[in-house]
Design a protein that fits this description.
With about 190 residues, the protein is an alpha/beta fold. The protein is built from nine helices and four strands. A two-stranded parallel ribbon has the order 1-2. The radius of gyration is 21 Å and the shape is globular.
Amino acid sequence: GHFDAAVKALQSVDEVYVVISEKTHENFSPELSRQVWEMYIEASGLQGDIIPLLHNELVSSDVPSPIQAVYEYIDNVPANSRVVLVIGEDDVKDGRYKNAGKNRDDVVIDTVVADRFARATDIRNMIRNNDVEGFIEKLPSVYQKRAMRGAAEEVFSILHSNIGLNEAFDLKGKEVQGLVLEYVNEVYSKA
């Protein structure tokens, strides 16, 4: 999906910035997202061509979202620049980037829409359900080669270890009470 679209964008630009939200989502931290992007980049031999950045690394000011960072970046690129936005289908539907570059007649804005290969929710469910094969099928094309199986499994393992943490932190009231009672009963039944 997005990685293959970033690779495609390299056909028309010298480098691609991947703008990563600085918010943690379902225990996937921005740093984890960057780590996975760097793994994709290394596996594809594209170091220096695709550059993953946290959204406030893209711009000099502190903005609350990657969308605002992209707008600010475009507002500050040199005249006669060409910017290619690689966005998802949902970005097109909700129009969040439709005004990007509208106030810059001296900048060319092109858009590449990433095919929806998999929804993030579906990927997280594959990880939760330990569906390694389904997960690997959704990885960038470089991972589909037999020689890359170990690297694909490493990506899965890194993400799988983090999603388990999230579920542990999601426990609420009665669930925690039930686990405590279960543990106490287990301890006393062995005594």
